[in-house]
Amino acid sequence: MEAKKHIDGVLLVDKKSGITSHDVVEVFRRRARIKKVGHTGTLDPLATGLLVLCVGKATRLQSYLMGMEKAYEGTIQFGWATDSYDAAGAPAGEQREVNVEGIDFEPHLARFRGELEQMPPQFSAKKVQGVRAYELARKGETAALTPKRVTVHEFEVIAVRRSTVQFRVRSSAGTYIRSLAHDLGASAGVPAHLKELRRTSIGKFAVADSLPFEQLENSALEVLIGRPHFQSLSEIDLPLEKLRIDWSQQGKMMRGQGVIMTPAVLVRKGDLLALGNPHDQLVAIGEVVNVLREGGPVEVRPKVVLAG
User: Fold this and answer.
1) Which one is catalytic: 8, 14, 23, 44?
2) Has 44 been annotated as catalytic?
3) pTM score
């Protein structure tokens, strides 16, 4: 294995239950001998499914990838709630055997679609005056959390079996699926918590293309950076408008200078663009800082430079 091999791109991993997202990052760091590795959104230890690792220069893209919408499938257990809103927490109240097959969930699901002001769980990583909410919760203290605006594009029941409900969710980044499970139970009048959760996609990244965690632990580096689970910088499908620049403009971008260009699509001041060179290699993320003429030339300055 080459210790100094330059690897830049994203690795799709199918996280197993019982480990943290950081554990996955550390395993890859050790296997690939690469320090610059991050991820685009935490999965709780009990959850499984898609984790997108940013490797090398791709760590500069983390903030742009973290905002992509996410999709999940999971199971909600009815009969009792928990203090953490999931199966890892302690029961909050009496545990009862219930059968929810007769409940019409659609009116309740409808309440949690669209834009919501969602309250994070007390057992969450949200910081209150520099302290994680879960650290206060473990001491029996209540964190002064504030609601966060999220968007739930889809919230559907797939199947109902006695006391459990299988569901599917597609939502904006930052949505707590644990809170949806807890709140659905409260709306239906039957305490509930999240029993199982699997993330199936992040933007256009799909768990079907991911590398099982067991292979991450045991495979050679050449396997880890193979397709389809590894995508190089040029292959990453960023949620941004893509435009091509010439070699002269690439040189200016690499020196931190702005360029004047005429996009084939309508852009506005403040828009972010994924800029590729004539070889379709991703060069930079640029920001439109000045529209010189509506529908005409604009000035674009680099926010993140990946070339060089």
Assistant:
1) 44
2) yes
3) 0.88
